[in-house]
TrEMBL record:
Gene3D superfamilies: Aldolase class I. SMART domains: Elp3. PROSITE patterns: MOAA_NIFB_PQQE, RADICAL_SAM. It is an enzyme of class 4 (lyase). GO terms for biological process: Mo-molybdopterin cofactor biosynthetic process. This is GTP 3',8-cyclase. It comes from Winogradskyella jejuensis.
Amino acid sequence: MLDTINMKKGNSILTDSFGREHNYLRISLTERCNLRCTYCMPADGIALSPKSHIMTYEEIYTIAQKFVANGVTKIRLTGGEPLVRKDVSLIMEQLASLPVELAITTNGVIVDRYIEQFKTYGIQKINVSLDSLDALKNESITRRDYFTKVYNNILLLVQEGFEVKVNCVLIKGFNDNEVIDFIELTKNNKLQIRFIEFMPFDGNKWNMEKLVSLEEILQQVHNEYDVKHFTRLNDQPNDTAKNYKIAGYEGSFAVISSVTNPFCDSCNRIRLTANGQLKNCLFSTSESDILTLLREGKSIEPIIQKAIISKKKIRSGMNTLDKFKDPNSHNNRSMIAIGG
């Protein structure tokens, strides 16, 4: 099968009008989740797509093949919670046959069940969501009591040698007093803590007052640690985060500042929702229906190219903070329906 794939690095189908090459595909496997995080899912839940509208494992593989043939070199599985999908093992097996780096983002609740499969299919990079180190606060934000399970699974992944990143969405007045506690996790654990600025999506009651900015996070760090022991690390190409390390600590930490300091200039990401819609930007409200075309037996490459070419320079046109603050700009899907 690999012989039929014609790798075309830098092919124009995945290059937008600003010259950005998109070689990183994030595929949402499901809209379902075993948590109900407040920043991700509205309190009353979401209307799930009918099962017939969700991509089958064969369709996921076929679409992934097309993207890989046109230059995608990395695929990350997301959700919902990708591991609650019943055929996730088959999906991982099939995608592992493609010449790509395969990674996954999970809430960590059942990740321990899949460690051997991750090793088998070459999944080395695992991102886990954890928004508080306080069990009661964690239950408050996830609406489920799984803190101990997730925390222990993070440590297990580290012990098993995976490259682990812990995603923490900071919300002012809720968990912004835990920045240093999270960083201290990196003292004896080879993992990265990633603080994520709170972003607006359907039903998550976002407002600017809840935002904990990059500047505020770094101020806490400067107040706690001697400046001589606080290092800015070199960013990797297309990195979404600004990376830092405390001298002598095993791990590191980073800040994803999509609101106050977006990384749009080097963005190489495209997203495929569980119901087969292509999003050229996390903040874009427009989508391209790949799945329907595929089921009709039509070529999906023209619509992929059209979606990429139409990608705007900064945050789907919200190129100033004032535009970003405008509630009328926030008619996007909920995060769980996008797939992160």
